[in-house]
Design brief:
Layout lengths: L5 H10 L5 H14 L3 H5 L3 H7 L8 H19 L7 H4 L7 H10 L11 H9 L8 H11 L5 H14 L42
Bound molecules: iron/sulfur cluster.
């Protein structure tokens, strides 16, 4: 996601829950032009922020506006407007989960404390035989045990890239995959690691 600071990356990552990076990249230039730092966003009215986030979708932009204003207020109140550099501090902020925290630690600070496990990392880890779990927390622990810390950030970027370009959830392109000779799921992966269909959403977002 496009960003010029750790603050922008943190906000963009929180906004990306249940939407696409492409859409987030369309709204954040307007958001950060109006609210360039945590102090500015902390002083905003969520309704004004929501007006800048409408492209993220009806039923979503108001909740996301409340999330990022609450996040900015947390940054100002607890960290003087700066983005903290530890997992423990980041996950205490409103709307920030372990995945978002590790994105920020890895991308902005080059110091991940875990592996980012999104839907692609989850699916590919199962297909590649690196985990037997379908729970992100356990998958993260399995990957942290398998790979050295210096590789954690690039590992998730690589798996996400491969998941978007080759190892699709539906119809993975095993014939054109460069690791099909080493993958235990090659040519029979379609039902491995796919999520169950979502139940109707009850509101709220988790990043
Ligand atoms: S061989 Fe198929 S299942 Fe295995 S990583 Fe490649 S695309 Fe995915």
């Amino acid at each position: 996601m496009d960003h010029k600071s750790s603050f922008e990356l943190l906000v963009a990552t929180v906004l990306s829950a249940q939407t696409t990076d492409v859409l987030v990249n369309k709204v954040t230039p307007h958001l950060f032009a109006a609210y360039p730092d945590a102090r500015a966003l902390a002083g905003a009215e969520p309704a004004e922020v929501g007006a800048l986030l409408r492209r993220l979708g009806m039923g979503m932009f108001n909740q996301k506006a409340r999330n990022v204003v609450g996040l900015a207020r947390g940054l100002v109140e607890r960290h003087g407007g700066e983005v903290p550099r530890t997992l423990a501090e980041l996950v205490e902020l409103p709307g920030v989960g372990r995945k978002t925290a590790n994105v920020v630690l890895g991308v902005a600070f080059g110091a991940p404390e875990g592996v980012v496990v999104d839907t692609h990392v989850q699916r590919l880890s199962q297909r590649l035989g690196w985990t037997k779990s379908d729970k992100p927390e356990q998958i993260e622990r399995d990957l942290m045990a398998l790979f050295p810390k210096r590789d954690w950030d690039m590992l998730s970027h690589t798996l996400i890239f491969h998941g978007r370009r080759i190892c699709f959830a539906r119809k993975p392109a095993c014939g054109g995959c460069g690791i099909n000779d080493a993958c235990p799921s090659a040519f029979h992966a379609e039902n491995v690691g796919r999520k169950a269909p979502r139940s109707p959403r009850r509101g709220g977002t988790q990043a």
